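Field log, afternoon session.

UNIT: design team B
ACTIVITY: writing a sequence onto a fixed backbone
BACKBONE:
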């Protein structure tokens, strides 16, 4: 069976990048259908820590160059999307404090501060006394901290759902189904649509593949290498503070000598995370991860050790060999595009990726330089 009407663009994957791209395209006047196998934001986009930082994966200059634009776009979305959908997705600017327990850690942070300054990102070194004036959550005996004021947080589930609802307001449609392959078009190097698991064919002028870690399986569809693999990331959530506990957390926290971060959220509970586990497509949570994350958080704050646990989540991040996502046209195809592989920074880079893909798909040109993210490097 074939669908009766063909949209300009068919997007496979209902995560944040797929939904924001659908929004950008539909807002620009394109007809868009998004296909999702489960539910909107059912993968990593729904359980991400929602920390808009470019510093959780690799300090790749090519990615860091895109960070300011993506952050600025997120600030715009924080106003535009709630106006369109009525959904507050919790965007909030709050300081993030990277603390040091020892002088060696302080030196490492100072070097890191200098690198960020060379990129035009100013961060302030503050004393232990300054830290404790900002937040009582820091109970460890620290030697100082680096303060960042350019790493906001948001609720990634609400962002993704809001983006898709806004796209629908501009005419986009959502179809439920599991895509199993591309349909070859009449001309070489073109696809006329996709096939679903139930045998349905969905036709479209152009196709974008954005399925998180599952995008790697589409290498067989596009006929070229696409080495994207899953990495499990677990988070633990803390119960809200009671009157006896003291103030709620008002900053994000980490300690340089220990992995992990404490992420302050405006609409959801404080998150402690996150693990980086190579376990295939296993999305289960584990007690071992919970104990590890709590011990890492307790290294900076006794509040983590004494707080109740409100929840634990696990998601699968898409990882590439060189740490960069694959964003752009698929080799050998004139009308097939890929946007996946952003690792733990998918939420942060989702805004700039969506704008880039919308421009590339709609008129053949991205408004930002994404040449370093091209898919040709996967087969070189």
């Amino acid at each position: 069976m074939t669908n009766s009407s063909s949209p300009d663009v068919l997007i496979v994957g209902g995560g944040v990048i797929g939904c924001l791209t659908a929004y950008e395209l539909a807002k620009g006047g394109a007809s868009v259908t998004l296909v999702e196998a489960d539910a909107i934001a059912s993968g990593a986009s729904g359980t991400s820590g929602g920390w808009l930082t470019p510093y959780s994966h690799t300090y790749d200059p090519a990615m860091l160059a895109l960070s300011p634009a993506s952050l600025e776009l997120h600030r715009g979305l924080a106003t535009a999307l709630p106006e369109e959908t009525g959904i507050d997705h919790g965007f909030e600017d709050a300081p993030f404090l990277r603390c040091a327990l020892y002088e060696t850690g302080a030196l490492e942070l100072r070097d890191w501060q200098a690198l960020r300054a060379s990129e035009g990102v100013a961060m302030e070194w503050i004393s232990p006394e300054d830290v404790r004036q900002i937040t009582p959550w820091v109970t460890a005996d620290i030697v100082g901290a680096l303060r960042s004021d350019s790493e906001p947080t948001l609720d990634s589930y609400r962002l993704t759902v809001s983006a898709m609802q806004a796209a629908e307001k501009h005419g986009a449609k959502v179809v439920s189904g599991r895509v199993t392959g591309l349909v070859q078009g009449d001309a070489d190097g073109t696809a006329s649509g996709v096939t679903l698991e139930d045998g349905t064919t969905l036709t479209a002028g152009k196709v974008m593949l954005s399925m998180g870690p599952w995008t790697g399986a589409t290498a067989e569809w596009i006929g070229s290498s696409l080495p994207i693999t899953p990495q499990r990331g677990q988070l633990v959530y803390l119960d809200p503070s009671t009157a006896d506990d003291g103030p709620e957390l008002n900053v994000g926290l980490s300690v340089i000598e220990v992995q992990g971060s404490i992420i302050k959220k405006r609409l959801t509970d404080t998150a402690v995370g996150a693990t980086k586990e190579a376990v295939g497509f296993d999305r289960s949570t584990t007690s071992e991860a919970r104990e590890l994350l709590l011990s890492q958080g307790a290294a900076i704050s006794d509040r983590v050790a004494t707080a109740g646990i409100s929840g634990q989540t696990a998601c699968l991040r898409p990882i590439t060999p060189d740490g960069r996502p694959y964003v752009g046209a698929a080799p050998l195809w004139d009308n097939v595009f890929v946007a996946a592989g952003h690792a733990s920074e998918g939420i942060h880079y989702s805004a700039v990726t969506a704008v880039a893909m919308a421009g590339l798909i709609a008129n053949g040109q991205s408004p930002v330089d994404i040449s370093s993210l091209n898919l040709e490097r996967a087969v070189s």
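LOG NOTE: Residues 67-85 form the longest helix (19 residues).
NEXT ACTIVITY: expression trials, pending approval
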